[in-house]
């Protein structure tokens, strides 16, 4: 497969997963973050890690929304990892962050060249640190984003009986 075709296919699917994440958060009513902290922590985690996994090299990561890494005994029970937001960000702030990361993903994917495919996402040299080729971290990020979009969709469906649309390709939800 040629690189232009690969870029188109990759963006169609990655963009669709981001669109579905945005749709799920956007569908949440005002006050829902406070009523359902699990939803909020999943949404926040998704926004942070979408951006993080798009940052090559990862040591250049500078999130728009600040957080503090906390040990298990200092985390809220609803948190899904150690990245705890420094405050409860609004839906508008999370959506703006996701839209910026969406643009970052699109720019990265459209700029791919044979040379860029040789780049690696390398966190460090400790056991368990990620060390992935660029294409693999993009696919990992796509799966991570879709996984959490599905969790948020389930919560929206259970709590509000709201059925959100599936996106087959990028921009089908607009």
TrEMBL record:
Gene3D superfamilies, A to Z: dinb family like domain (1.20.120.450)
Highest rank taxon of the organism: Bacteria
Stated name of the protein: DinB-like domain-containing protein
Domain named DinB-like: residues: 79-152
Pfam families: DinB_2 (PF12867)
UniProt-listed InterPro entries: DinB-like, DinB/YfiT-like
Signal peptide segment: none
């Amino acid at each position: 497969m040629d690189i232009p075709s690969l870029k188109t296919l990759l963006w169609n699917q990655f963009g669709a997963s981001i669109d579905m994440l945005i749709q799920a958060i956007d569908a949440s009513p005002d006050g829902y973050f406070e009523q359902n902290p699990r939803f909020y922590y999943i949404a926040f985690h998704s926004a942070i890690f979408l951006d993080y996994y798009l940052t090559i090299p990862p040591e250049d990561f500078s999130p728009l929304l600040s957080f503090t890494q906390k040990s298990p005994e200092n985390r809220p029970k609803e948190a899904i990892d150690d990245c705890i937001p420094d405050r409860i960000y609004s839906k508008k702030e999370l959506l703006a962050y996701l839209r910026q990361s969406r643009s970052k993903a699109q720019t990265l994917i459209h700029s791919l060249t044979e040379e860029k495919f040789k780049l690696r996402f390398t966190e460090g040299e400790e056991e368990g640190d990620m060390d992935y080729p660029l294409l693999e971290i993009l696919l990992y990020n796509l799966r991570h984003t879709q996984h959490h979009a599905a969790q948020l969709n389930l919560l929206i469906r259970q709590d509000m009986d709201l059925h959100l649309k599936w996106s087959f390709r990028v921009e089908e939800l607009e």
